[in-house]
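Apologies for my clumsy wording, but are you able to produce some protein sequence, whichever is easiest, and the tokens describing how it folds?
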Amino acid sequence: ETIALAELAVGEVGRIARVEDDDPAFLRYLDELGLVPGSVVHILDVAPFSGPITLQLEGAEGEKRMIGRPVAHALRVERVS
């Protein structure tokens, strides 16, 4: 079962299972960020009032990413324990 990345809370970890968008420009953007199926993300911060989500890619040497809620809703993840 997958959920939107936007549903993960601070401290949770998810593995990207699929992207619910087929716009080539959007998919290239996600690829540039490293947010592709199989990537594992750690949720570091969720800003209130529909603010951005800060996450860290596993194995990305501490690189953090900030994404907007629409992007986070398009990414389907599996929770990783």
User: Anything to note?
Assistant: The mean pLDDT is 95. Strands lie at 3-4, 13-19, 40-46, 53-57, 64-67, 75-80. Residues 54 and 66 are 4 Å apart (CA to CA).
